[in-house]
């Protein structure tokens, strides 16, 4: 049986005597192992993408839950969805054991509270269209387990991401995602291999879902909001790539479209006014691929 994240590996028993180059090699080696674990979990992640996209297409939310490192990794994934995909902030929620202060300061003991998990979910009104993703390296964190049990009872789709085989989190999940990373370079320090694997798994899951929902077109972030000079330039270049228009024309269309890459692309491609392009895009339910057909 593979060692757990809390196990001490004999190989790393004398790392305080290693030189700096060997320390870097050992730590980086663990990162490769983390990605390998995510790849092994590919079938579970693919199923999670398909089922989560169905719920979210009905108006549901992504609700992430975790404690400590796992909660902070979850929060990072949630926070990136609005700027990357223009996903509504209110539909990407992170519930952290110990509350918002625990994102920055360790809240010792908060992960052991089952009641706090249920209360947090009730506060956001978890329901049948929601997707609740709980992360726990050990697979036995009471806050994460109780959260999925409560969310499942409310009819939500539940996804458990954990790193130790046999973790109870998998037993209470509709879709268990085991990332079997084994012993850490620093025994028990799950911000390392386990954390890397969790981050990569969430990258795969949330990006895959957004692609399924039509938030990506031809590999481009067409929902991105150009909120600064760099992003305005990037948005214009996307429109150039999608339409073949000159850069200045793309910038002009982007301005008329109030920064909407999709709207500007439809305006140029279909030679439509803004109002006409808005109606065209609305008829396609905001899906650029469908609108351009």
UniProtKB/TrEMBL annotation:
Pathway: Cell wall biogenesis; peptidoglycan recycling; Amino-sugar metabolism; N-acetylmuramate degradation; Amino-sugar metabolism; 1,6-anhydro-N-acetylmuramate degradation. It is an enzyme of class 4 (lyase). The keyword Transferase does not apply. The active site is at residues 80, 111. It holds the Pfam family GKRP_SIS_N. PROSITE patterns: GCKR (PS01272), SIS (PS51464). Belongs to the GCKR-like family. MurNAc-6-P etherase subfamily. This is N-acetylmuramic acid 6-phosphate etherase. It comes from Devosia rhodophyticola.
